[in-house]
Amino acid sequence: MNAPASINFSHRHLLRIEGLSVPEINALLDLADTYVEVNRQVEKKQSVLRGRTQINLFFESSTRTRTSFELAGKRLGADVINMSVEGSSIKKGETMIDTAMTLNAMHPDVLVVRHHDSGAVELLSQKVDGAVINAGDGSHEHPTQALLDALTIRRRRHKLAGLVVAICGDVLHSRVARSNIHLLTTMGAEVRVIAPPTLLPRFVDRLGVKVFHDMKRGLEDCDAIMMLRLQTERMHGAFVPSIREYFHFYGLDKEKLARAKPDALIMHPGPMNRGVEIDTVLADDIDHSVIREQVEMGVAVRMACLHALLLPAANRGANVERLRSALFGP
Question: What angle do CA 142, 209, 120 make, to 5 degrees?
Fold first, then answer.
């Protein structure tokens, strides 16, 4: 495995997938590929970010994302602090910006932020000196989730261009769907969105996707199927008649899966609602499901993003060279 000469990523923050170029996305995926191998070794600790400080600031609860960012930072040698908003000054009336300015005075190198309002993370990034990574903002974007999904597919299919990927379920409220649409279309994949009209954004077809309301038709000859949960916490009103009826028409089961390619990948960003958007047998199907693999890829991708943002550009290529040589030899 040859190391890239340099990491082609010049952005100060990672706030969205929209606007990233093919070389930039490939650079992050290539570096994450290296960190997959690091994470499978007994000795996982690196010193790439020794002396750097990472603060995880989550205004929404999270298990997978926060834990994987914490692991990513610690495995790179950074000092990692998890801020609990439940116990922070925000509960006492302090604004998000005041909290950000307080943290900024402590000179962290990177803030990893999840917030329930779209655009909040970008606003915060304008008020701090260090790098900011968007760990999910409202229904806007979740860039590292799209990167780990892409890495999962690429490692299984060895490419992204030319593949047919279906994104099924609550697209309307899903930041994961938006980031995946931007990434996959940029990389040359055909993206289909499958959902009832009530769960699709207006003008979604302008994002370069094909829209289906019939799941069986939409899944024909698909290479990968991303299932999304119903985000009831963001719903105000009735979007589906009933859970039972929703699963009948839009839940992934064996009958619907049979329309896709025989080796189609089943994906889910989690948390899963078994029996709502996916049948429990398929969620655990070792021949198709890569859901656990997505979790593994998440740590590697977040290590790559921290590395790309925090390591001085002049040193990135040399560090990757040393890392690859240590893993695979000269």
Answer: 25
Phi/psi of residue 136, each to 5°? 120, 120
256-290: per-residue pLDDT in tens? 999 999 999 999 999 888 999 999 999 999 999 99
pLDDT tens-digit readout, 198-222? 999 999 999 999 999 999 999 999 9
Q: How far is CA 327 from CA 33, 40, 86, 99, 152, in A?
A: 12, 11, 41, 41, 21
Cα 87 to Cα 59, 83, 84, 90, distances in angstroms: 11, 8, 6, 8
Q: Longest Cα pair distance anywhere in the chain, in angstroms? A: 60
Measured between its terminal Cα atoms, the distance across the chain in Å is 10
Q: What is the pTM of this model?
A: 0.91
CA distance 118 to 73: 25
Cis, bond preceding 262 (omega within 30 deg of 0): no
d(CA 8, CA 79): 25
Q: Burial code of 119-143, b = ≥16 C-beta within 10 A, e = fewer? A: ebbbebbeebebbbbbbbbbbbbbb
Closest CA to 264 of 300, 196, 218, 295: 218
Cα-only R_g, the chain: 20
Cα–Cα distance, 188 to 22 (Å, whole number) = 9
